[in-house]
Amino acid sequence: MLKGKLLPKLVLAAMSAMLVMAAGCTPNPQKETQTQRSLKVMFYDESYFFQQYGDLFAMQYPDVDVEVISTQSIYSGDEVTDYNKAIRDFIKKEQPDVVMLGMENYEKMVSDGELMELDAMIERDKYNTETIYPALIEMLKEKGGGKLYGLSPTFSADAVFYNVDLFNKYGVELPHDGMTWADILELARRFPTDGDDKTRIYGFGERYGGMSFSSLAQRIASAEGLSAVNPDTLKVTLNTDSWKKAYKTALDAVESKAVYNPEDGGFMGGTMEEYYKSQLFLVGRMAMTIGDPYTLQSLKDVKNSLKDYKPFELGMVSGPVDPTDPETTRSIYFSDLFGIRAGSPNADAAWDFLKFINGEDFARIKSRTMNNGILSRMGFNKDYDGHSLEVFYKLKPKLSNDSYERMEKIPMEFYQEYQQILDREMALVEKKSKSIDEALQAVEQEGQAALDKAVKDKEAKKGSEDSADGSGSESSSSAGSSVIIVEPSN
Asked: What domain range is 385 assigned to?
């Protein structure tokens, strides 16, 4: 229970009290005399929950005893093929009051009537949502059929990070907001490619390692909303002009040697100093990369960790964007999306929790760190280590048309086989054994065969389980005994 965790920690209590004063929070003494309320919160780690949310919440609501229901068992047990379903099964079993969801499960649980609508409580309490990132509210309402069923105190987004000093040194024009992948890779090719592997610079690369031709093509396709499988028709479609262009753009960029793609795969282990030196953008050997808010923290860490570190001027612009819709991005993520389970007996305490962690006082305190992304409550996360965070709020999230119900038609077993086919064919392209057209045609044909088989196997399995369930029901009725019928998993 929360109180048992906090009382022995006198130092933490003192620090927490100072935080309350700094944030302008004044605990309500009347709440301490109220009956204690209980709250079960679903989260991936108990210790991190109290560090990030729980201890601060306790200062404002001392009458609420919080129990954390950790989801770690989902990932540490038997092999799981569908984590979204495993999470929903976990919720049904554990019955938490507050649930933490990804966007897929948010949409699914809204559709199934398993989340509590928040609009009525927002109106009742006159809770201010005007200064919450509008794109977040719009997205959650769109996925909620026009109503709001969850809130996320933080989010993460991609932006184009660039080394101003390198651009100035080589006379290359600086990046601009609304960069497409074609824009980025064109600029990257304007940097020199000479020098040895330990000293040369690169025009572009991933922050954490090499970027292969195939992975770069997938990033381009993702930004443009290309999908290999149509869940409505269950057709694999790759042999198209758009896909060919994405792969050709990626192949040309990698073959130009402007993109960092080490043959050994990059850093494979060693000291922290060796790790930092392997991150070429962080140490000034890469002109551009795609970064998120944590990139700023990494830049601060490397500056404080390497003795011979040479700082450089950092620039950030919005992107990469789809050239057909440059005001939006498909690279905005909400990690801690909280909702209230429908039927929760502790809905009032759950709503108090959501209000607090999405509120101004919480944002004011958390604005000093970058532990969990950018704050959704605007006006508090203005900069980090001297760098403006405005770039992360510039683009609106681009919603996918692939709803959970549509994507659920594609068997999970298909994806692994499809990836193997794709990897094999793209390796042949890199070896010049096949053209991009030939490879995409092969992936489309073999991928379709794999999908047809996976769908057929899924239907056969479901039919078998339905049959077994039906016979079990008949047996239990004729026997006249109490038997628990297990529902089929699909």
From this structure: 2-155+332-395
